[in-house]
Amino acid sequence: MRASGITAILALGILGGPLHGQTIPQNQVADLKPNQGVKMTFHGYVRDLACLMKFNEALKPTNDCAAMCARAGSPLVIVTKNGAIYVPISAAIPDTSQREKLMPFVGSYVEVTGEMFQRSGIKAIVIEQIKKADDTRS
What does pTM read for this prediction? Predict the structure, then answer.
């Protein structure tokens, strides 16, 4: 083996070796600037994502697919009558599940207030308040 090949192998061992098995300390924070959110209030249905994407009928208030899928563990979203989908996220990083907050409202029409973030066509909402709403008024 030539000297350059040995040098390359040693360099890989030196660079790769110490990283194996290391963990990032919990108090280490990424030096990132957060996107600016927009405070808003909107109305929509709490639905499970899979039913919503696969079946047009999932928007109907009488559809019980959402409850069945939610009980089975499907991801939950909020969808407006005009089809805008909001993915619930937490205010914390790393993100924490919003499932407990949404489960009482699965299949219901709700009013949501929170901070909305948008990127590449995806809308996310940090829910500050959620309550049942009358779906005949909006």
Answer: 0.73
